Amino acid sequence: MDQATLSQRQDGQPRSYLGEWIDGNSIQTIKGTPADHEIGFVESLYQACLATFQGVWKDVSHSSAVLNHTERHLLREGLSRFLLWGEDFDHGYLDQTLEHADDLRKSILRLLGDLGRLLLSGRLIFQSTRK
């Protein structure tokens, strides 16, 4: 198989390795974490934000009328960075680490809470405009 074949999808469009990585991690993350009791509160909040962020991405990426190309790129980049930030945390590791860093724990909780509220409100707005 040559390089040109590897860089194109079956429909002939260019393959987005970043998009495939996001989609692959989205499915794995959403299926793997809903009721996991081994993780702590901070990681649960991270997983909830991640699932919501992935939902926003899926909603927006399939609708060209909502965001322009640059805005979609920025959203995808933000999701990628958020995935990378939490990718190396084993179950319970984030909460265990933050037990010893109270100020950092509070900051992360505040930021995750703010991000979650922003994502939920954006998703609700997007869904209400589609009806």
What does this structure look like?
The chain is mainly α and 131 residues long. It has one domain (37-130). Helices cover 73% and strands 0% of the residues. It has helices at 3-6, 17-32, 41-61, 69-87, 93-98, 102-130.
SSE map:
Layout: H1 3-6, H2 17-32, H3 41-61, H4 69-87, H5 93-98, H6 102-130
Helix pairs in contact: 2-3, 2-4, 3-4, 3-6
C-alpha end-to-end distance: 45 Å
Helix content: over 70%
Structural class: mainly alpha
Number of domains: 1
The average pLDDT is: 75
Order of helices and strands: HHHHHH
How large is the radius of gyration? 17 Å
Provide the descriptors you would attach to this structure in a database record:
mainly alpha; disordered N terminus; 131 residues
Summarize, please.
The chain has helices at 3-6, 17-32, 41-61, 69-87, 93-98, 102-130.
